[in-house]
Amino acid sequence: MRRYHDSFAMKESSIQSISTTRPHRQAFAVATLLVLWTCWASPASAAERRTENVLLVTYDGLRRQELFAGADESLLNREHGGVRDVDALRARFWSDDPLRRREALLPFFWSVVAQQGQVFGASDAGSSVRGTNGLYFSYPGYNEILSGVADARIDSNAKRPNPNLTVLEALHRKPSLSGRIAAFASWDVFPFILNEETTGIPVNAGWELLEYASPQSRMAELNALAAEIPHYWSNVRYDLFTFEGSLGYLEQRKPRLLYVAFGETDDWAHDGRYDLYLESARRTDDYIRRLWEALQSLPEYAGKTSLILASDHGRGAGLEDWRRHGKDVPGSELTWIAVIGPDTPPLGIRANTGVTQGQVAASVAALLGYDFLEDSPAAAPALPGLLQE
Q1: Backbone phi, psi, residue 226, to 5°
Q2: What is the end-to-end Cα distance of the chain in Å, rounded?
Q3: From edge to edge, which strands make up the β-sheet containing 354-356?
Q4: How many CB atoms lie within 10 A of CB 72?
Q5: What is the C-alpha separation between 385 and 175, in angstroms, rounded?
Q6: What's the CATH fold of domain 53-375?
Q7: Model-level pTM?
Q8: Which is nearest to 66 in space by CA: 324, 308, 314?
Q9: pLDDT in tens, 302-347
Q10: Crossing angle, helix 86-93 and helix 274-297, to 10 degrees?
Q11: What one-character DSSP code corresponds to residue 109?
């Protein structure tokens, strides 16, 4: 409040001085005062905001159960979790302490993101993140995250153009961000979710060839490897390639907004392989760490980049439903969001806070200094407490 008291005093003093100026100077002085007063009364103004870039990352179908409590002991077996080497998996991921378990699974998330940022969705803290699309599978979930609205017209995972304006497209239209936005995704439906053909936003997805790598000389090697190895899923590439392509693009093209959509966690869960689901979550955490550390090593990004993490849907609980999600699987509507960056207060796990996954879109825009609701009035607002006040 001191800031505002001082501002009122300055305003009163300035008004008194204006009354003693000559008439031809008075109008100029008033105009100057109004400009200064606007700045004083706006503590979260764009001029004070440090975020110039955003990295948005999604984990496909990573349950909040594993995020907040680590490995589920009831699934560390062959019968219900499809685990091939139970002893090795337990040695890597199990502890009687849930805090140790979650740190073993997602060490970067819990040592850096949660410590220096904010995490939404911890049910034991009275926090929730809900999808509102009513279907709770991938395309409806990603549309809600990226456009801020649920849309009943999106009722399948078919490769159909998204009828909604995504935050990437809205920001791509801004002169300062045009040509500075890109996406890398493991799932091959993302060129349609993001309307690559009509927006011009580059989207590298599925088993597409990579055009960037770090170092660039590694690109041919990665593309040759992708052509040789078995494609376990025809429409989802291994997250390694998504990571390598996004890291190379980041270092070489310097985007202002980069979206990276990892996919393996959902597919290994559908296949009933809890061991590979956990291992994939652990690898993805490390990919995110490496992306974050790369950002902090580059002058264009260090100290002026925010990271948002989210998931497109939850999953069921119990010995069978952990593999599944959808409108008929309780718990599928519940997911999580995390944010870290120079403008986001380090509040850790947010307690007694209910938000929706659709609030991600406006949050991305807000961090970059734009109001997404001006472009899409029906979109959900930005996350509460996202920006320092």
Answers
A1: -60, -35
A2: 11
A3: 334-335, 128-130, 354-356
A4: 21
A5: 28
A6: Alkaline Phosphatase, subunit A (3.40.720)
A7: 0.88
A8: 314
A9: 999 999 999 999 999 999 999 999 999 999 999 999 999 999 999 9
A10: 40
A11: I
